Structures are given as C-alpha cells and as structure tokens.
C-alpha cells in the first residue's frame, strides 16, 4: 500500500496560513536549496492530492511558471478533493481568467503543462474511504499539498503516514493551525531534519501506527 505524505509550510508558532489564508510570509525564507529538496522528494511521488480552491490557484500558476518546481508539479497526476464535484475544464478556465483579471504575468501557459491539470481526477464522498482507495492503488506515494481545510481533515482522520513540514523562521501570531481538528494526540517519529541557509528547517515525521487519531 502506498503512503500518504502531507507537505506543508508552517510558521514557528504552528500556523499554515494567516487568519484570512495569507501565505506571503513563506516567500521571504524560500531558497533554491529548499526547492531542490522538494524536487528530489517529488521524484518518488505518483499522485498530488489537493483541495478544489488550491487546485485553481495552482492551475493558474504552475503551467506558466519557469520555477524549478514547475516540471514535477505539472507532470505528476492530480486528484482534486471536492464536496460537490469540480468541473476541471471550468476550473482551469476560470483560473486563467482570474490570472488575467489580476494582471499576472502574461506568459502563456504551456499547453502540455495545462493538460496535466485538466486531466485531474475528481474525488468526492467520504474522505477516509477515498484516501483508503487511493492508497490501495498501485504506484508511487501520494503527496497532499493542501489547502488548509484538506490538510486539517486528513490529520484529524489519522490517514497521514508521513509529515514533511517546512518550518519558516517567522511567528504569525494568529492564523490557521494545522492540527486544530485533532481529537487525540498524534505521536510522530522524527526521521529527517534538514536546515537551510535562509533559516527554514524541514522536519520529516513518520506517524506511529498506534497514534492514529480517533
């Protein structure tokens, strides 16, 4: 059975976003070596799991990006988690229209990269059952990138096998915590720790089998 890995950036005081979903504080401490670490990890990934809002934001950005992370983000198959179902063609079209409305750089999205987002799978229904089915499929591991609500729900269900948390050297003060929906403590085993020059520190934790949240 393949693993479910959660990759999230998090503040020093435990928030994954500001009160209104702000994530601009992450940008100041991003680094090339940190991105290289993520690219290496994505080489072992067979599916990206994202929430519907995060999907639209990513579909706006990655097909037109020249960032080192763009190739794996565009090429790896996607699964979009949505309560009501998401029309991928409509979602990607709206995302591109939104980019134009906000006067984002006019570099045209790469057609092949965009197709990687338009071919995303839609996942609805019970989240625990859906994740269980995806884990049972053959292939490389699954990485969940968010958004916040999806990450919180996955953590509360105890279905995450590995946490890859990049801690940024900033205290947000208030915002959206990752573990706010837990109903019981989750014991984790630290398996990797890597510090980067900008002050971010990657923590990789493996969930202990006996610590699944109720």
UniProtKB/TrEMBL annotation:
Superkingdom in the source lineage: Bacteria
Classification via SUPFAM superfamilies: Dihydrofolate reductase-like
Residue ranges of every copy of the Bacterial bifunctional deaminase-reductase C-terminal domain listed in the record: 2-201
Classification via InterPro entries: DHFR-like_dom_sf, RibDG_C, Riboflavin_Biosynth_HTPR
Gene3D superfamilies on file: Dihydrofolate Reductase, subunit A
Pfam families: RibD_C
Protein's name according to its UniProt entry: Dihydrofolate reductase family protein
């Amino acid at each position: 059975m393949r693993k479910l890995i959660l990759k999230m950036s998090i503040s020093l005081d435990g928030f994954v976003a500001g009160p209104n979903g702000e994530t601009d504080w992450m940008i100041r401490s991003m680094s090339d070596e940190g991105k290289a670490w993520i690219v290496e990890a994505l080489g072992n990934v067979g599916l990206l799991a994202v929430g519907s809002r995060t999907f639209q934001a990513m579909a706006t950005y990655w097909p037109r990006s020249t960032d080192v992370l763009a190739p794996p983000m565009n090429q790896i198959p996607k699964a979009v988690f949505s309560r009501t179902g998401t029309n991928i063609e409509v979602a990607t079209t709206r995302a591109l229209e939104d980019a134009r409305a906000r006067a984002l750089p006019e570099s045209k999205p790469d057609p092949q990269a965009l197709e990687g987002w338009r071919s995303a799978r839609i996942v609805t229904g019970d989240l625990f059952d859906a994740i269980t089915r995806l884990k049972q499929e053959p292939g490389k591991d699954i990485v969940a990138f968010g958004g916040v609500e999806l990450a919180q729900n996955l953590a509360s269900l105890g279905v995450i096998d590995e946490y890859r948390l990049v801690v940024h050297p900033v205290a947000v003060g208030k915002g959206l915590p990752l573990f706010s929906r837990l109903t019981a403590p989750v014991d984790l085993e630290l398996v990797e720790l890597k510090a980067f020059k900008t002050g971010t520190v990657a923590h990789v934790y493996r969930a202990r089998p006996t610590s699944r949240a109720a």
